[in-house]
Design a protein that fits this description.
11 helices; globular; 259 residues; 5% strand; mainly alpha
Amino acid sequence: MGQHCVDCVKQAQRGVRRPVTVAGAPLGSKPVLVPVLIAVNVLFYVLTVVQAGSVSRNNTAPLFQMWSLIPPQVAAGEWWRVFTSAFLHFGLVHVLINMIALWVVGREMELLLGRTRFAAVYLLSLLGGSMFVFLFNPTLSEAAGASTALYGLFGGVAVAAWRLKLNMRPILLVIGINVVLTLSIPGISLFGHLGGLVLGALSTAALLYAPAAHRNRWQAGALVGLFLVIVAVLLTRDAMIGDIMCGTHQGQRICFRTG
């Protein structure tokens, strides 16, 4: 078939446009972040099990107590909880269900959005869940789990199906079933799930509906804007929670509202 100049081939390929998804992600890539996220979630679950000495009561572990979402303690200065709580789970069933859902839904979303955009949607979704908990349930109740981010991916899939003119019934059915389960099973954070769903849908819409011209700039601006809104709401709600008192009980730092 003849010989080709390597430099000539490379030069020719520079002028060839690589096919991309509607979000601007290159086609043909493999999911990387989803397996990494699953591994991180499982790792932290195992660590809490080892610390607590129990598979089902791992929420008694020091790491769990330090990282779970408790609004008054966040308001007292422990801001990392709005992020770290999304990597903790109450027991084996909780982590298994969430990781299976992440594997099923997350892979398709990572391929559609690309790794960086997928990471942004995942982050905004879990922060959105924390924001809704702060807004509507700022009590001493403890919240944790990747489901805030998972609901964000559900919302993202719904937006993607609408954008690509796909059949909406399956994803709407899945979302509806999960909302019913959230409402019917005691102890599940309804507001955390709704916050993740809303922010996941908004951030995915910002990615998929960005103008093709200067797409990356539009997308980055929209995502940064959503992040700043979340931060502003958390800071505002922090000031409204009331006075916080902290102390130590059995070696653990405990904070609570006094007003």
